[in-house]
Design goal:
The structure holds 2 protein chains of 2 kinds. By secondary structure, chain A is mainly beta. Helices cover about 0% and strands about 60% of the residues of chain A. Chain A contains no helices and 11 strands. In chain A, strands 2, 4, 5, 9, 10 and 11 form a 6-stranded mixed beta sheet that branches. Chain A has a 5-stranded antiparallel beta sheet with strand order 1-3-8-7-6, with no helix packed on it. Chain A starts with a strand and ends with a strand. The model of chain A has no long low-confidence stretch (mean pLDDT about 95). In chain B, strands 2, 4, 5, 6, 9, 10 and 11 form a 7-stranded mixed beta sheet that branches. Chain B has a 4-stranded antiparallel beta sheet with strand order 1-3-8-7, with no helix packed on it. The chains are: A mainly beta, B mainly beta. Chains A and B meet through strand 4, strand 5, strand 9 and strand 10 of A and strand 4, strand 5 and strand 10 of B.
Chain lengths: ~110, ~120
C-alpha cells in the first residue's frame, strides 16, 4: 500500500526567504506526482504536475523535483510572500487513484 | 463557471439520516474522483469513475457509502444511516482524460463539509 509522508508538518518563515517542502513515498511505481495548495475552507489548487518520466517542473517561483528511485519529491518556493501562506499537499498518482500526504502548513510572516 | 462545482457547501444531518452530495465536474472531463478529508489530514481516496463506469470503489469505508454517475457527467455520493465518524469534508475532482494518462492534472471543487450530530 502506498504511503506518502510530508515533512515538516508546519513551517513558519519570514517574507523573502527561500524554502523547501519535502514529500516521500514508499512505492516508486507511480504515474505522476502532483503538488497542490489548499487554503482554509477551500478545495485543492493544482500547482505543479510531474510525470514519472520527468525530473522537475517549474512555474514562476515554484520548482518541483521528482526522484522516483529514492521515493522523494521536493517543492522549492523562492522569495516567499505572505500570500503563499497555505497548506501544501503532495499526491502520488497510480492508475486511477491518488494517495495524499497530510500536508505542510506554511506561514509566511510579513 | 469553468471549475468543479459541489453542492451543498455545508450539510448538517442527524445521526441515522441519509445524505446526498452532488458534484458537477468540468464539462467534458472523463475521469471523476471522490475523496474524504478529515480535519488536519490529506484527502483519502473513495472512488473513481471513468465516464459512467465506476472503475474503483476500494476506498469506500462501508456499504453505507454509494456513488453514481449515471450519464457520465454529474455524480452523487450518497451516505446512508450516517454516523458521527462520517463527519468530514468530501471533495470531488475531475480530470480531462482517463485515469491512467499521466500528463493531466486533477481539478478539485471546494468540497462539501458534512457534520453529523
Amino acid at each position: 500500500k502506498q504511503e506518502v509522508t510530508q515533512i515538516p508538518a508546519a513551517l513558519s518563515v519570514p517574507e523573502g526567504e527561500n524554502l523547501v517542502l519535502n514529500c516521500s513515498f514508499t512505492d516508486s511505481a507511480i504515474y505522476n506526482l502532483q503538488w497542490f495548495r489548499q487554503d482554509p475552507g477551500k478545495g485543492l489548487t493544482s500547482l505543479l504536475l510531474i510525470q514519472s518520466s520527468q525530473r522537475e517542473q517549474t512555474s514562476g517561483r515554484l520548482n518541483a523535483s521528482l526522484d522516483k528511485s529514492s521515493g522523494r519529491s521536493t517543492l522549492y518556493i523562492a522569495a516567499s510572500q505572505p500570500g503563499d501562506s497555505a497548506t501544501y499537499l503532495c499526491a502520488v498518482i497510480d492508475a486511477g487513484k491518488s494517495t495524499f500526504g497530510d500536508g505542510t502548513t506554511l506561514t509566511v510572516k510579513p | 463557471g469553468a471549475g468543479v462545482s459541489q453542492s451543498p457547501r455545508y450539510k448538517v444531518a442527524k445521526r441515522g439520516q441519509d445524505v446526498a452530495l452532488r458534484c458537477d465536474p468540468i464539462s467534458g472531463h472523463v475521469s471523476l474522483f471522490w475523496y474524504q478529508q478529515a480535519l488536519g489530514q490529506g484527502p483519502e481516496f473513495l472512488t473513481y469513475f471513468q465516464n459512467e463506469a465506476q472503475l474503483d470503489k476500494s476506498g469506500l469505508p462501508s456499504d453505507r457509502f454509494f456513488a453514481e454517475r449515471p450519464e457520465g457527467s454529474v455524480s452523487t455520493l450518497k451516505i446512508q444511516r450516517t454516523q458521527q465518524e462520517d463527519s468530514a469534508v468530501y471533495l470531488c475532482a475531475s480530470r480531462r482524460g482517463e485515469g491512467s494518462i499521466g500528463n493531466q492534472p486533477q481539478h478539485f471543487g471546494d468540497g462539501t463539509r458534512l457534520s453529523i450530530l
